[in-house]
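Protein: DOMON-like domain-containing protein
Species: Sphingobium lignivorans
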Amino acid sequence: MSSILAERALQCHPATPCAAIVALGARIARTADFGWEISFIAAGDPSLVSLPPAAPPVHSDGLWKTTCFELFFARPGDAYAELNLSPSGAFAAYHFDHYRTGMTRIDLPAPDIAVTGGSERLVMTARLCEDCLPWDRTGRIGISAVIEEQGGRISYWALAHPPGKPDFHHRDCFALALPPLGSA
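Structure follows.
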C-alpha cells in the first residue's frame, strides 16, 4: 500500500501542441517500504506516441530526445538535481551546481520502470528505493515530460512553464513542495 503525497496535472507548453495526449498528470507516493512510486498518466491516443524501444535498466544519456518523464529537485542555493525516467526502462540522474552548468552524474540504483496502457491511456510508473531520490524533501520539485508523437513532433509538459521557450531547468518549473516527512 502506498501513501499519495501529491497528484498534479502537467500543462503542455503552448508552443508545442500535442495531438496524441489531451491530458497528462503525475502522482508521487511513498510505498509501504518507504520507497518512492512516481506515476505519469497520459490520456488521449497512446498509439500516436512514439515510445523508445526496451533498453537495459542502466544510466543512459540523452533520454530527453524522445518520450521521457522527468523530475527536478531544488537544492540549497542554485544547485538542483534532475532524474530522467524512460519508458524504455533506462534512466539518468544528474546534479547541477547552477542553472544548466556544473553537471555531474549521480549514481543511483536502477528504478523499476513499468509501462501499461490501453486505447485511451498510457501509464508509466517508476519505483525507487528509499534513499534513491537525490533530494531531502526540503526544496521544490519540477515534474515534466517530453512526449514524441509518431512522425517526430515533440511536446513539452510541466507543472508550470517560464515565459518563452520550454525550459524544464528554469526555477519557474519547480512548482511543487511536498509535505514534510511524517505529515503524509
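Remarks: The radius of gyration is 15 Å.
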